[in-house]
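Today's session is about reading a structure prediction critically. Students often jump straight to the picture, but the first step is always the sequence itself: look for stretches that repeat, for charged clusters, for runs of hydrophobic residues. Only then move on to the predicted structure, which in these notes is written as discrete structure tokens rather than atom positions. Here is the chain we will use throughout the hour.
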Amino acid sequence: MTAKKHKVTTVGFISLGCPKNVVDSEKMLAEIAQAGFFITNESDNADVIIINTCGFIEPAKVEALDAIRYAVDCKQRGNVGKVIVAGCLSQRLGRQLFNQVEGIDAIVGLGQRDNIARIIERTISANRPAAYLGHLPENCSDDRARLLITGRHWAYLRISEGCNHRCSFCTIPSIRGPFRSKPRDLVLAEAAELASAGVVELNIIAQDTTYYGRDRKQINGLATLITELDQIERLKWIRLMYLWPAGINNNLIETIAKSKKVVHYLDIPVQHINDTILKSMRRADTKERLQQLIGKLRSAMPDIVLRTTLIVGFPGETEQQFAELLDFVNWAEFDALGCFQFYPEAGTPAADMPNQIPDRIKQQRIEQLMLVQQRIAFAKNKTKIGSELLCLVDSVDEKGLGRGRYFGQAPEIDSVCIVENCSAQPCELIKTRVVGAKDYDLLVRQI
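Below is the predicted structure for this chain, in token form.
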């Protein structure tokens, strides 16, 4: 695209949601910058403000609508010229968004991501609101040439788009469409581009990373891919996120265990452990298989760090079934755990199931479960005191206080290592010794 000059056009950008949305935001920002617009940090005082939304569960929808209303309010006060809404909520609600928030100038669907610069130009000169929706792309989009907002030394690498699973509680397939693997050559080219730009940690993301290549009739696609990513010299850490438990086979476990760069950290959303609830959720797992999987992983990699996600208050969840979930958490001793209450999302089978659980009980169960997990996490931190950890430095303030992560801490979602008297620069890997813990974070000293 030929760069154009827009001397007085400033663009503010708000990115909400998951890492997949972050990648979309980074790609849009690159398109905006390349078109010659000026990207400003003062999003509430810009000619155009873009909100890249999330919208797959109620809290994300509420957050997105709040951000949109704030932008419209800035517009009404004369501080913002035009308001453009993009992302998952735009894809999910389409033109309905115009009715939910009056004052939106343009709605942009997921399939129009790479046309954002043209849409800005049209919106600036338009006299009436417009929706740019269209169809989702048949293939996973090319995410090269992004403007990173994660930092210069770590990034997300999306290897697919959409999802073929039909969990009864999830809106993702209806928003992002069916699973489409990114061609392996394109994934490797993007990874090489990121590495050449200074990225040393790649966080592999997809709706289900274990499904990679299956839509293209490839066997062990993820295992083959990470073996090739291992060969990119400048990369130091490769982290696997969002692994569907039923898709983790012996070949993948062996490949991870043998890899020199794939860290022994897996994010495996379990959602529940009771067989009846799992069946109602339309999950392919059972309690027995999940317990066997955890055992296999820890046998193959004794130092493995496991993160999971759970849902409480699913329709029909009894006190006994919740107690079974608590027992499982106590048994599994996950290193990190996210817990969410069930939300009856419109259009999902679970929203119309009988025996919906009151929000009050859902909240009680979340609090009870997270107290159990807190005890486990704090106890694990205590066992690390005195041990040595290799840390990737993320930032250092003017007083020399550093923040970094060892391999068992994913960016943005996990705890961190706080480095006393840090003499290293961001992106450096340093040897440290754990000297204490502060809540979920580790206190470490450079050695």
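Discussion point for the tutorial: Residues 389 and 432 are 5 Å apart (CA to CA).
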